[in-house]
Amino acid sequence: MRHKIAFKLSLAFFAALLLFALLMGGLFYTLFRKYSFDAKKAQMHAQADAIAAAYAGDMAGSAPATPGRGMGQRGGMGPSLRMLDDLTSGNAWVVDANLQLLTSGRGQRSYAYTDLPQDAEQVVERVFQGEHVFSEGFSALLATPTLTVGAPIEADGRVIGAVLLHAPVEGVQEATAGGTNILLLSMGVGLVASALLSWLSAGWLARPLKRMRGTAQALAAGDYTARTGIRQSDEIGDLAGAIDTLSVRLEDARQEGDKLERMRRDFVANISHELRTPVTVIRGSLEALRDSIVSQPEKVAAYHEQMLAESRGLERLVNDLLDLSRLQNLDFRIDMEELNLTELLPDVARSAGRLAADKGIDIDLRMDQPLLPIQGDYARLRQMLLIILGNAVKFSPPGGRVSVALTDRTVTIADQGPGIAPEDLPHIFDRFYKTSGGANPEGSGLGLAIARQIAQRHGIELTADNAPEGGAVFKLVF
After folding, report:
1. Same domain, 324 and 344
2. Domain boundary at 328, 355, 371, which?
3. Based on the domain organization, do 67 and 131 belong to the same domain?
4. pLDDT at residue 63 above 70?
5. Sign of torsion over alpha carbons 237, 240, 244, 245
6. Confidence of residue 65 (pLDDT cuts 50, 70, 90)
7. Contact 454, 383 (CB under 8 A)
8. What's the pLDDT tens digit per position in 365-390?
9. Is residue 282 one of the residues assigned to a domain?
10. Same structural domain for residues 250 and 390?
11. pLDDT by residue (tens digit) across 89-142?
12. Nearest-CA neighbor of 377 among 332, 322, 319?
């Protein structure tokens, strides 16, 4: 369980929330306690000032106390004493500069000079300098944690006495403890809710990761159709999209590999088929001649002629295979040079004219410009054009016409033959593909495949179609 990402995320969220709660709780406790004490000090400050103001008039008209006078003597301060008891419940003292306790409130015990704490003299001294002083040094004397504020009693611009107002800090501590308990309860509820929310959030984050893991495992097992199906506009969505793209690429690569494998098998089968017939004929003829089955001179000559024709066919097939293999190899060098297409076309037409003359076919060459410079390999371009033009002559009926037209940068070769069957049209540039018409029984099915490779190496667009009036039309866009 602890290795699950949902558990790790939940634990991290909870730890972060717990740390945040502890920090906020400590900060709240410190600030709340300070605020409570500051509020208590402000209240006592105002109360001490009120008492000092009430005493100022009484003490200004009375004789100051001396060390010989007893503690608790009130002199002429009866009304102020009653106000002191009413306001402070006897928790306020009035002292003079000699730390003589003029009054400690009605009903309170009397304190001797030696009973006062050590810092009482410093507090009174600072008060007689006009300051308001806070002290916790009277706690031991009053037998309870106490906060004391000293306020000056001023008359005629001088300090004539000091008010020491005592207040227990138990109320402040109880308020702080109450606020802390409420905070702890709130933090506990918040942590429980946060832990539940973090678990749900971690599960929500982990679900798409589990789906991506399943998809990756399926891809590793060879199922390239697997998809995550996750659509999110965040980093997880980007990762899922990358996995889906990878699966698409792998599926395409698998299909391409299957296609190449089929092509390889078909290639081997076609090679075997193309080689079997001439080899069988040559072997049978040689066996007949060796065994003297054929002995008449004219029949022996016929056998020799047949073997020669089959050997030439094998030679053409091997040469075509070598040419196709070289052209498909991108490392095979094509000698590019500056050529004039209007000089190349007449050369090709003259070479094809010998085959056309045997069938009484006229080759009509028309060019709309005297000069068209191109970059290319003269021998390979001549080979490409001869393959297409030779096919046009072979498939044209005797006495027909083959037209070769150069318009702008497009060469069009059209014949008057039967055309190309619609089912054959998409495949005529495939290796070893032969149409079902039987007009070219000696062909290897590699000529147009070689022509297409030469066109691709020269950046020429080569297409084939049927003319509306009949016959096949080949277009080469330079």
Report:
1. no
2. 328
3. yes
4. no
5. positive
6. very low
7. yes
8. 999 888 999 999 998 899 899 989 98
9. yes
10. no
11. 547 778 877 767 666 554 455 555 556 666 677 888 888 888 888 887 776 666
12. 332
At residue 237, what is the residue type?
A: G
Q: Are 71 and 112 in contact (CB under 8 A)?
A: yes
Distance from the first to the final alpha carbon of the chain: 68
In the predicted model, is pLDDT for residue 256 greater than 70? yes
Q: Which of 142, 173, 204 is the last residue of a domain?
A: 173
Q: Identify the three-state secondary structure at position 226.
A: coil
Q: How many CA atoms lie within 13 A of 267 on its CB side?
A: 13
So what's the pLDDT on residue 366? 94
pTM given for the model = 0.45
Single out the residue of 424, 429, 420, 434 nearest to residue 465, CA to CA: 420
Which residue, 429, 355, 450, is CA-closest to 396? 355
Is there a single domain that holds both residue 412 and residue 453?
yes
Pairs from 426-435 (Cβ < 8 Å, separation ≥ 24) = 428/464, 429/462, 429/464, 431/263, 431/267, 431/270, 431/324, 432/266, 432/267, 432/270, 432/271, 432/274
CATH number at residue 107: 3.30.450.20
HSE-up of residue 189 (Cα within 13 Å, Cβ side): 5
User: Distance between CA 180 and CA 186 in Å, rounded?
Assistant: 10
| 366 plus 295 within the same structural domain | no
Q: In 221-296, which ranges are continuous DSSP H helix?
A: 235-290
More confident residue, 450 or 88: 450
- Residue 176: CA count within 13 A, CB half-sphere: 21
86 with 152, same domain: the answer is yes
Give the residue numbers spanning the domain of 469: 337-477
Beta bridge partners of 95: 101, 162
Q: How far apart are CA 185 and CA 291, in angstroms?
A: 114
User: Please, which residues bridge with residue 368 across strands?
Assistant: none
- 405 in a structural domain: yes
Burial of 103 (0-12, 13-18, 19+ CB in 10 A): buried
